[in-house]
Amino acid sequence: MQDKFAIFILTHNRPDNVITYNTLKASGFTGDIYIIIDNEDKSAEKYYNNFGDKVIMFDKKAIAKTFDEADNFNDRRAIVYARNSCFEIAKDLGIKYFMQLDDDYTAFDYRMDGNYKYGISPIMSFDKTIEILLTYYKSINVKSIAIAQGGDFIGGGKSVSNINVVKRHLTRKCMNSFLCSTDRAFKFVGRINEDVNTYTRKGSTGNIFLSIPLLSLTQKTTQKNTGGMTDIYLDNGTYIKSFYSVMFQPSSVKVALMGDNHRRLHHRVSWKHTTPVILNEKYKK
User: For the whole prediction, is pTM greater than 0.70?
Assistant: First the structure.
């Protein structure tokens, strides 16, 4: 298999609102883009009308049997099925490297300048950005790399937490966008909050997942954008969503209040209890 690359946009019931597709084009991406849908999507025909042979459909019920959903519900309105289908889809297409993206991204930006000073400027050469990310990904032994999210930069350049992130250049979480390889396949776990479930549970056993905070993506507020996973979030709430991660990693993840003025329940990860810490050999007795 050659080192072919493609972007997979995971979408459901939004055939006329695949925002990420246009954002990628506006950001200068010229490579292959595939639209990943499931066989339970009633708007499938419209996807085929809009995107033709770039639409790939997978069997949602069949994929459900391949991983731990962490519950006994029958509600499959979740993205985890599409995430886990991508590795086989990539193999079938002869693609070794791929990036999974949600369908509601409105912008891709640089968050730092050449001197690591905070600032926002739009990515206009996404081809080059992917080339650099792929070169780095190939050189290290990690399962997946993600682009940071806009919410990671709340507080801007004066935020102490942002400054610390920039100094480290990397963070151990990995959410929303996933640069993957068929040679490094893994299973996302849990019906909801699958990204947190996966990078904490698998991270605790030595698998490495990373985010690069020099870049960011911006997406629409989930519960204000119809289709996708909005319905399941509205039905279940953030407490149940976050508790999936507690079930998978109870030794280091808990549910806690998040925010200042509008506080809500959210997962909280204790990183020193989540990922293995390797001591330098100079401390060996």
Answer: yes
Nearest to 139 by CA among 37, 217, 208: 208
Span 123-129, average pLDDT: 96
Give dist(CA 224, CA 169) in Å, integer.
32
Q: Exposure of 93 by Cβ count < 10 A (0-12 exposed, 13-18 middle, 19+ buried)?
A: middle
Confidence at residue 232, expressed as pLDDT on a 0 to 100 scale: 52
Domains of the chain: 5-275 (3.90.550.10)
pLDDT-derived band at 1 (thresholds 50, 70, 90) equals: very low
Q: Do the Cβ atoms of 99 and 7 come closer than 8 Å?
A: yes
R_g of the chain computed on alpha carbons: 19
Helix, strand and coil in the chain, % to nearest 5: 40, 25, 35
Angle at 190 between CA 252 and CA 76, to 5 degrees: 155
Distance CA 70, CA 72 (A): 7
* pLDDT for the residue numbered 257: 81
pLDDT (tens digit per residue) in 241-251: 899 999 999 99
| Per-residue burial over 11-24, b = 16 or more CB atoms within 10 Å of its CB, e = otherwise | bbbbbebbbbbebb
Strands 97-102, 178-181: pairing kind: antiparallel
pLDDT at position 98 over 70:
yes
